[in-house]
# Entry
Amino acid sequence: MSDIDPELDSVFEETPSDHRSGMVAVVGRPNVGKSTLINRILGQKIAAVSPKPQTTRKRQLGIYTGEHVQILFIDTPGLHLPRHKLGEYMVKHAESALKDADVILLLHDVSQPPDRGDEHIVETLTRLRGDTPVLLALNKADVLDADKKDRYVAAHIETVKPAQAFLISALTGDGVDLLLQELIARLPFGPRYYPAEQVSEVNMRFIAAETIREKVMLYTEEEIPHATAVEIDSYRELPDQTVISGILYVERDSQKGILIGKGGSMIKRIGMEARQDLEAMTKTQVHLDLRVKVLQNWRKDARLMQRLGYNVAADER
Ligand SMILES: Nc1nc2c(ncn2[C@@H]2O[C@H](COP(=O)(O)OP(=O)(O)OP(=O)(O)O)[C@@H](O)[C@H]2O)c(=O)[nH]1
Ligand SMILES: [Mg+2]
# Structure
C-alpha cells in the first residue's frame, strides 16, 4: 500500500503557487453571532443558530474554498464563566481554537456597549493568543442605533485594541465581503487541504443531532435548552428515504414532561421542524422518530457527557 493517497495528492497538485490557506478561529461571548457569520460566509447552514446563548457546544470546522484560498473557520462555543462540566468543556474547546489559529476573529455585539464580560474575553485572548493577530468584527450593525454608532464602535475598539475592526451584519451580510478579503490577505501561502466541495467535517449523524437540538434551543425555555443532549441511535439511508431515530436526554423528570409537552405537542413540533430541515439537506423523505429520556445531571458527569459526544479527555488538545 502506498503512503500517499492519490486523491489527496491530486488535490494538492491543483493548488496554484499563490494559494493561501489557514485557520481562522471565530470566538466571542455567547450569542454574538459566530455561527450565523460562518453559515453566511459558507453560503449554507452548517452550524446551529438560536437566539439563546450557548447554542454551540463544541468546535466545529467550516471550510471556505475560493480559487486562490481555503479558509478553515473554527466555530467555537461562546466564552463564558462555566457553571458545570459541560460549560467547562465548552470553554476549553473555544480556548483550544485560539492556540491553533492563524488569525483570531473576535466577534462583539456592537448594538450593546462593551461591559465587564467583554473585558474578560480580552483578558482570555491576551493570555492565549501569543502572536496571532486579532481582527474585531462588530456584529449586529443592522440593529445599532444611528445616534449610538460612533460611541459604541469607538468603545469596543478601545476595549479590544484589534489589528483591524469591521462593522458587519452577519444577518444581512453587510460588511462581510470586506472582512473576508482581509482575512484572506492575512493567511499564509499554503495548500488546499480539503476538496472544494467539502464545507464541513462532520457526518450526517452529527448534523441530524444538531438540527434536532437547534429546534429544542428555539422552542423551549429556561434550563431545558441547555439541559438537553441529542443522541442519534439509528440513521439508515434507504434508496429514497432516510430513517432516523433519536433520543433527547434531559436532566430531570420535570424537564422530560415539558419537552414532551401537552399530548406530545412540543416533541411533535421539534420533530416536524427538524424533519423538514433534514429533508431539505438530504433531498430525501425523512422519517424521524424521537424519544425523551432522563439522564440525571448529565452536565455534571464527565462519563455521561462522553457518552453523549462531549468527550472531555479525547477532545482536549
Ligand atoms: N440583528 C442581528 N441578529 C443577529 C446577527 N447575527 C446573529 N444574529 C442573531 O443572534 C442570535 C445568536 O446567533 P448565533 O449565531 O447562534 O450566535 P453564536 O455567537 O454562535 O452563539 P453561541 O453558539 O451561543 O455562542 C440569533 O438569534 C441570530 O439570528 C446580526 O448581524 N444582526
Ligand atoms: Mg454558535
Remarks:
- Residues 34-35, 47, 55-56, 75 surround magnesium ion (ligand 2) (CB under 6 Å).
- The beta strands are 20-28, 60-66, 69-75, 103-109, 134-139, 164-167, 229-237, 241-250, 285-294.
- The chain has two domains: 6-185, 204-315.
- The mean pLDDT is 93.
